[in-house]
Queue: 4 jobs
Job 1
Amino acid sequence: MVGRRIDTTLVKQRPLGCLTGTSLIVGLVVALGVTIAAAASGNAIFSPGPLNAVAGGEALGGVTSHVELGRECGSCHAPFWSAERMEDRCLACHAQVRRQMEGSAMLHGSLPEEFTCRDCHIDHEGPDAELTRFDLVDYPHESVGFSLQAHQSLPGTSIAACENCHQESVNRFRVDTCRRCHLEIERAFLLEHMNTFSPACLNCHDGVDSYGAAFDHQRQDFSLQGRHKLAACGDCHDDANTLEVLRATPQQCADCHLKDDAHEQRLGIGCESCHSPLGWPVATIDHDLTRFPLIGAHAETGCRDCHADGQMMQLGTTCSDCHADDDAHAAAFGANCDACHAPTRWQDVSFDHNLLAFPLTGAHGRVACQACRQAGIFQGLSSACASCHADPAFHRGLFGVDCASCHSTTA
């Protein structure tokens, strides 16, 4: 092999793959044949099937059905080199759909932007085939305001086809369809539910169980505590026939329980200041927040001792309002017992005589009360010395009754 020469002339003349003269001729013949066949058949060789022949109402684009387009594929299919889409040509004829897409209130206007006509409308499946066909697995039903999420696992139901719910047309839905199905599944519950709220199911339900089996009242602003957990929905949400009304349910105690107020609003309407959701008998009140804090023996007194007959408001706060029958002084000192007595017990007395018109000075400070207040008389006593101290015999009446002109209270 050493020194062998290679003939490069043969290498240069070797054909490059399929670009041989024969292959090029065959390719041109095939292309010409396809072109002739397509022209002769009106491009039918590229069609997957006959066009739909179901006539619509008014003529669109000069035809009442797709089959009238004949072999003019370009009426629907834009050439691959064009920036125009097939959807543009659909909407050129179906102007009413284009108008629906301009707003969100109609079916076509609520669809996601990525959706195309061909996602729902399919042709070339025969003259009598249905032009509208939804794939429930991929169709975003929530975009039209109702999700199919909760219905996927609902026992005893099937939503395999649109007509299960849309019996008249995919553009129409009768609300009694909800009742018809759910009465078969849970009749007793549904009858009570409609009676409490409304037969208009779609007023509240969105198909994802926002207010269905997955609803948790404890996550709301008004969590259910105590006896509220035992209340039926209708006790608070009677005639709540829309979500707006349901969410606007009042949350104050008096909104529901004013008729149960044993105090007849004498304590106002803030029931929660004393009562809890555990029940009306379970009540706690901080009397220190009132105008009469409970101290001493008052803190051990039963509520009804002062609040007789359920009277809670406009009660007097002076001692005599409750203790007039206990006044050993027979009102001789007036009604303000607390001027001397403490709220602990009657025997706890602290009286400052120096605050009166007759301060006790000198020997007077050592005199027992009864020495002056005989017979329990405390008011109207004279402060003159002679009213207690008779003129000594050795004065023989020579100095009058003004003892203080010579004597002091020391002795």
Job 2
Amino acid sequence: MRTILFLICIFASYFMQAIEVTYKNNSMYVNGEPYYMKGICYHPVPKGKIKRDFSTLDEDINLMKEAGINTIRVYEPIDDINVLNKLNEAGIKVIINFGYNQRGRYDILSGTLIDYIFKYQDHDAIIMWELGNEYNYNPQWFGGDITTWYKVLEVASQAIQSLDSSRIVSSAHGDLPTKEVLELAPSINAWGLNLYRWDKPESVFDDWPKVSDKPIYFSELGADSYMTRPHEQYESGENQQAQADANERILEKVLENSDKNIGAFVFSFTDGLWKAGNPNKQDTGGVAPNSDGTPYDGSANEEYWGIVDIYRNKKITFDVVKDAYLNFDIQ
């Protein structure tokens, strides 16, 4: 009898979730407490490299804490318990994103994302499972028919929720999904919006209620620190002030409307020298679909989006983010 009870306890603890994330009326709760995601997109790739590397994690965590960041969003799963533990100990939560095709490495196509969820679903650092990143801009990945993606998205969402009912399942969409998209993926709990509408994100708060009453968060927003062309008072070339001014205006509007969204993720934590050319130097340009809404030049210079540079020197916008997040109190 004692052996049977022991096995029952093991079985129950295996499926017992360490964290509970819920939502109601455009508000998010973690273990019953109101929670707003004061976030940053985080994909640290060292100078001269092309793959993510957590060798600067301790320094990065200290900078994040200084800036009032409580949540990070990553573009591929973190398969390192030590990294997750450090983030959790620092009070930083994580959105884990699963890509469609990552050559069978915790991806949607192979179904191996389920292996990751089994492995880490009891970890307190993980706050949300996110599927895809603005795939609506890339129908060519799905034979030219983007509805194929939304059907796959729905299947993956249902599968995750059958395994883990304690967290939100979301998808990051390029700007707003349409009613037709929402009908194809009805089980998605919340929608992330990669939103680049100059420095005026507030228009989304009128647009979204017309298509859904589900919660939204800004999975990407912000500006880069390079001006391809001059605009008004902002000169061409590297221009940290333009980035800072844009981020200040964007965050002000988003946080003023915190009753209409559950979080904001500034893109991004550090400059990415791997994105547009030689990873040993900082290049201009790069491929960024639907980037004509990037303030203030309508051009996304992909290697200049950090709130710190590749050496972790703070840009002007670091203090903008810090002031916005530290002075924000969830209602």
Job 3
Amino acid sequence: MMKPEIMDTTLRDGEQTQGISFSPREKLLLTQFLLTELGVDRVEIASARVSKGEFEAAKGIARWAAENGYLNKIEVLGFIDGEKSIQWIQDAGLNVLNLLSKGSLRHLEKQLRKTPKQHIEDIKRVVETATKRGLSVNLYLEDWSNGMLSSPDYVLFMIDALRKENINRFMLPDTLGILNPDQTSTFCRKITHAYPELNFDFHAHNDYDLAVANVYAAVSSGITGIHTTINGLGERAGNAPLSSVIAVLHDQLNISTPIDESKINKASRLVERFSGIRVPVNKPVVGDNVFTQTSGIHADGDSKDNLYFNNLLPERFGRKRKYALGKLSGKASISKNLEELGFHLDAGSLKQITERIIKLGDKKESVTIDDLPYIIADVLDNGLENNHIFIKNYSFSLSHGMRPSASIQVEIEGESHESTSIGDGQYDAFMKALWKIYDQVGKEKPVLTDYRVAIPPGGKTDALVETVIRWDFKGNSITTKGLDVDQTVAAIKATEKMLNNIELRKHPFGLA
């Protein structure tokens, strides 16, 4: 089976997700990452003539691509508009046009109000002009899936009339996400068998949650290019997510691709941060929970020859397997988490810890591995001071037209320290004041990597908010939570917990 090209369209079609607009700098950084680290074959970065910002982004990407040998991998959606799209692409410094045409008779007649022959002549003129001006052309057959369902003769007429033009790839979009795998297989096989000399891309949408299954069917039917987006971004229900597509190609179809699996999760987090659209915790490959075992019996099975593993090993994607802590936890789950922290408890202590965690789970309180040191200290009551660092006092000043300031008092190992700083928000001012103190006492600082505010699980009121913060300390991820009526105070509580978590890892209760 032929290895399909991976064309990622996060920066063009993915940007059609409601509320998303990537900045020129973000588009450049993502393009660089997609091509140089993740390893996609091509990147569709923009639509021509959309905005000044889109043009500036395209110019910046073009400069980088030209200097680094990636210019032919950068693509732009253009339109049948005489030479306007062609000029836009050339002025940006790029040379690949993905020309949008009509792939269904209904779209042609109702939207363009033209005959098939007129549409063919319009396409030919644009392709000829683009070729003369040095551009490479691919052709989108918009609404191709409806075309195959309701007007297949029109689709075949289009391809047949254009097969000898200077068109490198014919792109077959399931624009409205209406196909199922059987239909995808039938339609793609009909096209690839009729025109074996041509290159065809398949562009899936996920309206019925079948995008990845349809990609499987398309590749199995001879399609030579697949369009994806990071995190499945895209209009309505989105597009085929690159993470799942690659896992399916590698594991289900035994097809190798140039994609570096270990960089997939990083790509997901970059797009999550730039887009502001959070990845669902249960999203395959990249969701927070997909490599987490919740049931104690599963943790026990993993301890006895990895009985609950499949081929989607987290290490492939730069991640680790986790074992959830809650009412379904057993001693095996607790032991797995204790091993991660480097703690070793006797059977009696382990039983006590397990009982405490189950009780917390019954109360709908979420427990993470980073809560364990506190639970251990509390349950074992070993007489050691749990906290080494106390945030004793803080005050904030907030005035219209001025940046917030924070004054704080922190006790570290019994010694009091004070500091003041300004920031872009109250919590930012607090953190800058805190890091001044850390610099003064020579303590290493973690890096904040994620910040989330929500109503606590199971909560019946919005009077309390839960702030969940993820930190990175020397390559280790630490997640801490704070709960309060005020969001900033909740974040400060989570921060104090993080600081002491690091200290508790250095002084693990004298446990053997």
Job 4
Amino acid sequence: MEYQPNLKHITGEGGVVAGVTRRSIAAELDLQPGDVIVSIGGQRLRDVIDYRFAIADERIELLVRRGDEETIYEIEKDADDDLGIEFVEPLFDRLRTCNNKCPFCFLTQMPKGLRKSLYLKDDDFRLGFLYGNFVTFTNLSEADWQRIEEQHLSPQYISIHATDRALRAILLGKPDVPDVIEQIRRLGRAGITTHTQIVALPGINDGAALQQSIRELAALYPMVQTIAVVPVGLTKYRFDGKRPQSIRAAIQIHETPEWINENWERQPLWEEAIGSNTPPEALGHCARQIVAADIPMRCYRADEAAGVIDMVEAHAERLRAEYGVGMVYASDEFYLLSGRELPPADAYDGMPQYSNGVGMTRDFLDGWAKAQRRLPARLARPAELTLVCGTLIAPVLQRVVDRLNRVAGLEATLLPIVNQYFGETVTVSGLLMGQDVVPALREHQVRRALLPRVMFDHSGTRTIDEYTIERIGSEAEATVAIAGEPEEIIRYIRALAVEE
């Protein structure tokens, strides 16, 4: 899951200290959590990137605010010495919000009532550089470009969806967008590389459009390092019990009263941008394909997923022969949906798009193949264990359960949970809700369960609907723990083996 900032910690006053490393320079200065790093050498800090550049000197002046008092610390150190400060948020000034209205935007496919940060429509190139969040590059000023080039913020992560400018405009919900190919070339001239993703929609930007996008992006190697193709995700709130909504209707959702709030940049309504009185020359590139806006959206079928895999693998084979790397990769979801065998690990070239769901399942399977050797032969006393997951990954985890059942005294079962909250079209474990997991555990009378780590936030403490591990265990009347990596499963089983 992409990094999600918390707006209440981005005050524009500086970087709030979250922690201080022991025996560090910051510890010697007695800096404490809650202190605010306002500036270094008189330069106000916009984010942790500015901070890192500013401390790369032998002599620095650190302006710190504690409550109403400000203190300047003069520090002498080696240029590459860190100060030992951890910040609450990486951004200090403001978050760059998204000015697009993508018809498949997941934010507009969630009901109201969840925590506010989940509705944050961010599109900040700094989060791309720091965490690999994908951004669109449609909201950059010339000052932003200069900063990217001067500070050499490489690599960048760009959501492409289509290299055809007209089709990309529709997929971003705008009458026109910048030429992304020229943007990548500009980054390349500054020595900055790019990782790209294409969210594929059946019948819209796959087929010939996907062929074109892959060819044009691949031609920019090594400026473009990777291309990930991932399937669109649609929840029941997109369909709302009716026929699938068209792209046009989905774009318009962004400007309905229930979705406008202070975190969303107001953009012209679709009808305002392409009204009947608008001259054709003012419609921009979107005018050529405006008919595409009335195409209904839907999820991929298994046979269509296999077709995307065939296309991607054919390009990867050609590119590997030409460049030595496959460069373009279909996400794990395509393989799991189609039932196709996942490629071997070396086909992912080091898995540079791992966090985007590309190679993650292969990595798990290979990790499990090694880790399972450390399983105990038997338990000290009989125990039952249920592994919980989303429906998509169930066939993979069934292999794990089958192996666990070879441990004497252990009775393992798999519990794939249908996502009632977001709808059956949402099949990944990362979007499981506590309110779906608890009834399933109770219905199946589960007494001990391992939950997928990905259904919890970065700290591993709460689900999307604010359930903690403790709350799930209490309401389900079960002993629950979380696990993500194969080693975590092994450690849990080994602990069971010695329980008296």
